[in-house]
Amino acid sequence: MPLAIDALTLPEKAGETLVNRLREATDWAQAAIASAQDYQEEQANRRRQAAPVYKKDDWVWLNLRNVRTQRPSKKLDWLHARYRVLDVLSPFTVRLDVPTGIHPVFHIELVRPAATDPFPSQIIDDTQPLPPLIDGEEEYEVERILAVRRRKIGREYRDEALVKWTGWVEPTWQRLDLVQNCAALDAFEEQHGPVSDVIHHQIDAGNHEQG
């Protein structure tokens, strides 16, 4: 009889053990989820608390990882792109005085405050100065024309020049007619020949490769 009683109670004990294990596993999973949520919330709070508050005319370093550049490496872009805050659009976005051709609105995660009194080792000379005012408007000086191209926009074509602006880090593509009367374009043509010929050679080379 004792054996029979034990035999009857074994399934009940096994079931009770299984239920207890399931409860323990559920409790553990819930605790793990809660812990992960607490960690994520803590990290989010840290990021929010660490985010500096910007105001107009502040200077910031801009991370240009999302901006196409002609430079082969972007590792030092934080150190080589200091810009002025033109406007604070929201707690999370600012408008900067970036060169023409680059969308000027950036999330605050892409900028860092630029020290107004940096240590000597932090002083970077390769940053753009404020443009001079001519007739009450900002005037940007063309330092050099780096390249020219013909670009298709919709059904039309537009000739453009890759312009290196005086004091600016990143060159930008501009309409060729906007830089027609400048010494930099003359210097480019002295080195490479007439712009129209350069563009036609590019087109011919492209057609030859396709053929």
TrEMBL record:
PROSITE patterns: CHROMO_2. Coiled coil: none annotated. InterPro entries: Chromo-like_dom_sf, Chromo/chromo_shadow_dom, Chromo_domain. One of its GO terms (biological process) is chromatin remodeling. Pfam families: Chromo. Residues 140-192 form the Chromo domain. SMART domains: CHROMO. Gene3D superfamilies: 2.40.50.40. Component of the NuA4 histone acetyltransferase complex. This is Chromo domain-containing protein.
